[in-house]
């Protein structure tokens, strides 16, 4: 192979819209029982993928899978905790058996625990890092092994604009640290797996309205909405097209990128 030979590219005859298609692909989305994960699972399914959804709560997983099926999407729900190595191995095994080998992994499961550095306990620190960072590494490793063997695959990690800025006086240090590490882990995996035909990118969302949004706090508007150039928060379905782009051949020359999608929050 010469250094100029393009790899992972669709044939020249493919139209732009066809490059966004995920027909025949299997996608696995962690933390997909609600919020951004649920919206991204729907978008990947609408782009043609069979979609596996996972989270800790069995009811939420069942609901999310049923919702996808009701939209005509081939779906499978599997309960798993990304902090548990045995759960993650079981999850990947089950999805592979039910839908086929995973072509697209979206590492979305994440939590935050409110509090300043001095208020953060050892336990909270570990819990946030175990979910947001260790979980991304663990799922990437479990799915990546098969991708390396097959010589193809895409991974999209959900980071955050909070990896780059600190916009609240009481913002959560373990959350910020974990998301910054996810951005750098994205680049490390991208470099390691590019020779194997695997692309790894991250989305860095700004504020999106989900159950995790602190809308009940009096400062929410002042801290989370006003600073954005667009003066609003995002809606979960506004993240869907971006994940389809990064998961599909539409982004065939992108790896190790962190795509910020924040309504202009980090402009200032
Ligand atoms: P939600 O709290 O609404 O959803 C989180 C999802 O992750 C749920 O499905 C939850 O289900 C699952 N989850 C949590 N812990 C685990 C675990 N250990 N193992 C498996 N699944 C788990 O959050 P959002 O939708 O708002 O956020 C999704 C991602 O996007 C997170 O990584 C978050 O940090 C990131 N993000 C969100 C932003 C926002 O404004 N909303 C901004 C920037 C980034 P269950 O509890 O049943 O396990």
Layout of secondary structure:
Layout: H1 16-19, E1 26-30, H2 35-46, E2 50-55, H3 58-70, E3 75-79, H4 85-98, E4 104-107, H5 122-150, E5 153-158, H6 173-193, E6 198-205, H7 220-225, H8 240-247, E7 258-261
Parallel strand pairs: 1-2, 1-4, 2-3, 4-5, 5-6, 6-7
NADPH dihydro-nicotinamide-adenine-dinucleotide phosphate (NDP) binds at residues 30-37, 55-57, 60, 81-83, 108-111, 131, 158, 160, 205, 207-208, 210-213.
Protein name: NAD(P)-dependent dehydrogenase (Short-subunit alcohol dehydrogenase family)
Organism: Actinopolymorpha rutila
Domain Ketoreductase: 25-206
Tell me what the structure shows.
This protein is of the alpha/beta class. It has a single domain (22-267), classed as 3-Layer(aba) Sandwich (Rossmann fold). The protein contains 8 helices and 7 strands. The chain has a 7-stranded parallel β-sheet with strand order 3-2-1-4-5-6-7, sandwiched between helices. The longest helix is centred in the middle third of the chain and has 29 residues, at 122-150. The model has no long low-confidence stretch (mean pLDDT 95). NADPH dihydro-nicotinamide-adenine-dinucleotide phosphate binds at residues 30-37, 55-57, 60, 81-83, 108-111, 131, 158, 160, 205, 207-208, 210-213. NADPH dihydro-nicotinamide-adenine-dinucleotide phosphate (NDP) binds next to helix 2. Pfam families: adh_short_C2 (PF13561).
């Amino acid at each position: 192979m010469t250094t100029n030979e393009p790899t992972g590219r669709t044939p020249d005859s493919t139209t732009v819209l066809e490059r966004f298609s995920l027909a025949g692909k299997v996608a696995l989305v962690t933390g997909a029982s609600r919020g951004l994960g649920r919206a991204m699972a729907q978008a990947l399914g609408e782009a043609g993928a069979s979609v596996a959804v996972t989270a800790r709560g069995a009811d939420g997983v069942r609901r999310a899978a049923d919702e996808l099926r009701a939209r005509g999407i081939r779906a499978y729900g599997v309960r798993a905790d990304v902090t548990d190595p045995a759960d993650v191995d079981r999850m990947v095994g089950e999805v592979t058996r039910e839908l086929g080998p995973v072509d697209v992994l979206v590492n979305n499961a994440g939590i935050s625990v409110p509090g300043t550095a001095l208020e953060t306990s050892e336990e909270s620190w570990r819990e946030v890092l175990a979910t947001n960072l260790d979980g991304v590494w663990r799922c990437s490793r479990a799915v990546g092994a098969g991708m390396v063997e097959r010589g193809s695959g895409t991974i999209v990690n959900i980071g955050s604009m909070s990896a780059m800025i600190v916009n609240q006086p009481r913002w959560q240090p373990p959350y910020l640290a974990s998301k910054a590490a996810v951005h750098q882990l994205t680049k490390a995996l991208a470099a390691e797996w590019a020779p194997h035909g695997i692309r790894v990118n991250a989305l860095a969302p700004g504020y999106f309205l989900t159950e995790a949004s602190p809308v009940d706090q009096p400062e929410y508007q002042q801290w989370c909405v006003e600073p954005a150039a667009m003066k609003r928060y995002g809606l979960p379905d506004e993240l869907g097209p971006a994940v389809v782009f990064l998961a599909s051949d539409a982004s065939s020359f992108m790896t190790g990128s962190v795509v910020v999608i924040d309504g202009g929050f980090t402009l200032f």
